[in-house]
Amino acid sequence: MSDSLPNYPFDRSATLEPPHEWAELQAGCPVAHVRLPSGDTARLLTRYDDVRTVLTDSRFRRGGGDAARVSTTKDGGIFARAGEGTDMREGEGHMRWRRLLSRSFTIKRMEAWRPRVQAMADELVDELVKWGSPANLSAGLGLPLPVRVICALVGAPSADQDKFARWSQVMLTLTRYSQAEVEEAYREFDAYVSALVDERRADPGDDLLSELTQISDSEDGRLSHQELIATVRALLLAGHETTSNMIAVMAAMLLSERERYQAVIDDPELIQGTVEEVLRLDTTLSVIGFPRVATEDADLDGSVVPAGATVIPCRPAANRDPRRFDEPERFDPRRANAAQHLSFGAGAHYCLGQPLARLELQVVLGTLVRRLPTLRLRDGVEDLRLRKGLLSGGLEDVWVTW
């Protein structure tokens, strides 16, 4: 049977547009069997309500080693290893971990970082202007800004950004890297974080890592050493990888139909709504998404998902579901319910860092329209290329001119 199943992720004819299968499955087969790059099979969900149900319903837990393998590596990919060796993955252990971290990522606390993020963005745009047009926006702004921000927040040296980028790519492999390369990346990343922990333990500062180290060393032992290592590694990886790619995607999406960019120049009040529409309409970053495993038989749209089955909640498809969003393909920065998108997930695993990611995207967009009002893509939209072989997706280098 699996030989006749469609391969997922689907191919697409245009870089910034979704594969046509999403809408077709939404309309006629919302719970579809697909074959993953590993060769394992899973059920793909494309409707908003189904995706949100799986993200929020305790009958579906985050997939571990018993889920369908996603990657071609022996371990099945980073999703099978997330929280490995800890009780951070699900249930009370996960909620305990979230409670410890959530106070560091409140909207109020992140807003206090806006002036620092703005200063970093201005400095990087200064460098772009200094070196002149054309420029690689991905390398000159997309990668370094989130790296500098998360390093300042956590307490790691931003000079190590090349290491983060390398380790992150390898750990997020879909088809690009071998199991041996993955194991090496984990060993090096964990050794790096361990050294950082030792430094902060000996000489604590005003940063999240120092705070987490103190929590780990407290009498009640609320964070074990392994949990501390896994937490800092996850923060450094997630804190730059997705936002870095989204900055490039945002620029490409707005400049590919330049009236979108011009609208923000004409009315900066559209910055927040524009960022939400970019997040809703992006189809490039979430290549597969975090698999879930049914803990009991569950009904989704009249289809029974048996206990033990792996489901793939396709958030980008859900974000374009006409049952939730009127004219979902239309870019509308004034869309009233745009922020109901599922790009940051939902429920117990809703992205902790979403206030910071939103802030960074807003700052970048505001800075670009203010500093570079004549910004354009150097090449045609058809020349944009997807990053392939990685779970994080996104675009290859986005070159701009002004």
Automatic annotation (TrEMBL):
The keyword Metal-binding applies. The keyword Phosphoprotein does not apply. Pfam families: p450 (PF00067). Transmembrane segments: none annotated. Keywords: Heme, Iron, Metal-binding, Monooxygenase, Oxidoreductase. GO terms for molecular function: heme binding; iron ion binding; monooxygenase activity; oxidoreductase activity, acting on paired donors, with incorporation or reduction of molecular oxygen. Belongs to the cytochrome P450 family. PANTHER family: P450, PUTATIVE (EUROFUNG)-RELATED. This is Cytochrome P450. It comes from Nonomuraea fuscirosea. The lineage of its organism: Bacteria, Bacillati, Actinomycetota, Actinomycetes, Streptosporangiales.
